[in-house]
């Protein structure tokens, strides 16, 4: 895959998980399944924070099981509850 190739799975061209790429893909999924009251940039920032938390939890030496719960609660609080949003 070239550097200019676009991926939709949250990974960059090298296959590494990228906060920005994950938030971008997540944003597309949410706007396709939910009514979003946030601006596009606010949504992207909101999801980047959540994506960073998830990536940090997944790459930590010890997995913190509270992180996905907290992220799920944040999605529900924002009314992003459709299956495709998660």
Notes on the structure:
The protein is mainly α. The protein has a domain at 39-86. It has three helices and no strands. Helix 1 (19-31) packs across helix 2 (40-59) and helix 2 packs antiparallel against helix 3 (66-77). Residues 1-7 have low confidence and may be disordered.
Mean pLDDT: 84
Number of helices: 3
Q: N-to-C terminal Cα separation, in Å?
A: 27 Å
Q: Can you tell me the residue ranges where pLDDT is under 50 for at least 5 consecutive residues? A: 1-7
Instruction: List the secondary-structure elements in sequence, H or E.
Output: HHH
Helix content: 40-55%
- For the CA atoms, what is the radius of gyration? 13 Å
User: Which term fits the overall shape?
Assistant: globular
Largest sheet: none
- Note the beta-strand portion: under 5%
């Amino acid at each position: 895959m070239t550097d200019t190739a676009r991926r939709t799975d949250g990974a960059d061209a090298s296959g590494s998980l990228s906060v920005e790429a994950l938030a971008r893909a997540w944003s597309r999924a949410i706007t396709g399944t939910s009514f979003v009251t946030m601006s596009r940039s606010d949504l992207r920032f909101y999801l980047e924070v959540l994506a960073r938390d998830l990536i940090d939890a997944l790459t930590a030496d010890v997995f913190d099981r509270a992180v996905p719960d907290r992220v799920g609660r944040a999605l529900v609080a924002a009314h992003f509850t459709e299956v495709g949003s998660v």
